[in-house]
Design a protein that fits this description.
The chain is mainly alpha-helical and 168 residues long. Helix content is 77%, strand content 0%.
Length: 168
């Protein structure tokens, strides 16, 4: 069947695919929560609060040692961007998903991620090893962008807005 080495090699890909599969539900859920709470910002805050509670519970359950705050405080300023950008993502998802739909929002998210990833990788930003831009990588990102235009174009061309489900 699968060797342990092969399984360990494909495990990160499987985890990434599962994380990606969760994003449409997160975007739609945060949008609905923001609507119910009266503003997308409240939906984002509620989502972040649940994330903190779950993360603390898992850390306690796994008996993870306390964080090395001194080391983090002495590190580069950009170590803290994850929280800021996470809040930006959640707020954007809550505000924009109702207009673009989960697929449309996430297609544009992926487009932004891939273009930015090329830049981050090329320059080796934020402590990553530099991976120069190549023609193959640029073509790959261009194909993703073409896919985004195709996927999003079919949603907005017909009615200007995503259809609402009877269960929403």
């Amino acid at each position: 069947m699968f060797s342990k080495t092969a399984l360990l090699a494909i495990l990160p890909t499987g985890v990434a695919v599962l994380a990606g599969a969760a994003l449409p539900f997160q975007a739609a859920g945060n949008a609905a929560l923001g609507r119910e709470l009266g503003h997308p910002a409240w939906g984002a805050l509620a989502s972040l609060t649940v994330s903190v509670i779950i993360t603390l519970a898992v850390a306690l359950l796994l008996r993870v040692p306390g964080p090395a705050l001194g080391r983090a405080m002495a590190g580069p300023w950009w170590l803290w961007l994850g929280g800021l950008l996470g809040a930006l993502y959640l707020g954007s998802a809550a505000a924009v998903t109702p207009k673009l739909g989960a697929g449309g929002f996430l297609a544009w998210v992926v487009a932004g991620q891939m273009v930015t990833a090329l830049i981050v990788d090329h320059f080796g930003l934020m402590g990553l090893e530099a991976k120069p831009v190549s023609l193959h990588r640029v073509v790959g990102v261009a194909l993703i962008l073409i896919g985004v235009f195709c996927a999003q174009g079919s949603t907005t061309a017909e009615s200007g807005a995503p259809a609402r489900s009877a269960t929403a």
